């Protein structure tokens, strides 16, 4: 029986999103949405990264809708696209982890008034805690 999670990485900088995803898994599929995988025993992590943002936000929205965790990267100089990504992450209902080199108070100010205002903020994401083990999926 396997269990795991699906995580999306959102960033207005596609290269930064890819670097974050590379820390969490190995690139398996390269398309409109890059898919990175990591398997550890019966635990499987899938990391989704949209490659066509901001031209096509729908690919990101699809990835986020399948995710139990969203990693949102906030650059040193946030732009409107970062606010849009924050709203997308907030609307997902998933656990949101914000990564940024900005001071915590500045990041919180960017998202003041929306649900991710109090999300966990880290400098770097090197791993994601495994979720609760549920019923999983059995392949026979």
Looking at this protein, list some descriptive labels.
4 helices; 7 strands; single chain; 140 residues; seven-stranded mixed β-sheet; alpha/beta
Describe this structure in words.
The protein has helices spanning 14-24, 57-65, 80-92, 104-110; strands at 3-10, 26-29, 33-40, 43-50, 69-74, 95-100, 120-122. With 140 residues, it is of the alpha/beta class. The protein has a 7-stranded mixed sheet with strand order 2-3-4-1-5-6-7, sandwiched between helices. The termini are close together. Residues 135-140 have low confidence and may be disordered.
Q: How do the strands and helices of this protein lay out in sequence?
A:
Blueprint: E1 3-10, H1 14-24, E2 26-29, E3 33-40, E4 43-50, H2 57-65, E5 69-74, H3 80-92, E6 95-100, H4 104-110, E7 120-122
Parallel strand pairs: 1-4, 1-5, 5-6, 6-7
Antiparallel strand pairs: 2-3, 3-4
Task: Give the structure's gist in a few sentences.
It is built from 4 helices and 7 strands, in the order E-H-E-E-E-H-E-H-E-H-E. It has 140 residues and is of the alpha/beta class. Strand 3 and strand 4 (43-50) form a beta hairpin.
